[in-house]
Amino acid sequence: MKVVVVTGALGGIGLETSKLFKERGYTVIGTDFADSTDSTFEKFFQGSITDETMWKEIQGYISQKHGHLDVLVNIAGRNYLDQIENAKLAEWRDMFEVNVIGMVTSIKYVSSLLKKSKQGAIVNMSSISAQIGSDGYAAYCATKGAVDSLTKSLALELAPEVRVNAIAPGWIETPFTLDGLQKSSDPVAYRKQVESMHALNRVGLPAEIAKSIFWISSEESSFMTGSVVVVDGGYIVKN
Ligand SMILES: NC(=O)c1ccc[n+]([C@@H]2O[C@H](COP(=O)([O-])OP(=O)(O)OC[C@H]3O[C@@H](n4cnc5c(N)ncnc54)[C@H](O)[C@@H]3O)[C@@H](O)[C@H]2O)c1
């Protein structure tokens, strides 16, 4: 039985991804801030992605129950909106703590289990924001730039046993982006503007990102590692 760990497993993209892996026959282990009794998960770990104690428990559970791990999907992430003159350094530090160090922590604790799989894969959640920048979201963009660099270096470090890739989505409809929408002065007009910035003239769905994550973790992409794959409905080409 193939085993996957999904972080941020209760979020918009995380839950769709967990369900897709389950549908495709994987045993799914989830983790997030909140707890879950959803039958999608064989086991759920509640806690912060940055908590080493939790990762030691996850490592111990997988070692004992399965002896190996096939896929780690790092989805947990947060956002912070501010102009640089007003920047709260504690928020910046927490952005890096969650979006980057959290990823480093999960990889540190499960990479030996991934090496035991015949086709281990890590998928890190980046964003096109790392490549295009975003007014007011400098902290977010900087953390996603770090995710891209981390992905490339760890692809070298963990090869050939484990492939490491990142997915960089455009605007996907989840609580994460709806929150940003609500912070704008005219959410309806902003939404229309965002849609028109994508060549496909719409925003993406969490299920569309889940499919890309599944593909890049699977045999179908067996010669890919160190790649940051853009899944953005044509946002970058249009802008
Ligand atoms: N939605 C988009 O348009 C979009 C675009 C590009 C990239 N992303 C990235 O995709 C990922 C998921 O985004 P989403 O849209 O599903 O957002 P979401 O807010 O629905 O989900 C994020 C999940 O991460 C969890 N999380 C946050 N901080 C955590 C922490 N410290 N410890 C444990 N869990 C934590 C949250 O509880 C939540 O369940 C994020 O990394 C985000 O940066 C999203």
From TrEMBL:
This is Unannotated protein. InterPro entries: KR_dom, NAD(P)-bd_dom_sf, Sc_DH/Rdtase_CS, SDR_DHRS6-like, SDR_fam. Belongs to the short-chain dehydrogenases/reductases (SDR) family. CDD domains: SDR_c (cd05233). GO terms for molecular function: oxidoreductase activity. PANTHER family: DIHYDROANTICAPSIN 7-DEHYDROGENASE (PTHR43477). The keyword Phosphoprotein does not apply. It comes from freshwater metagenome.
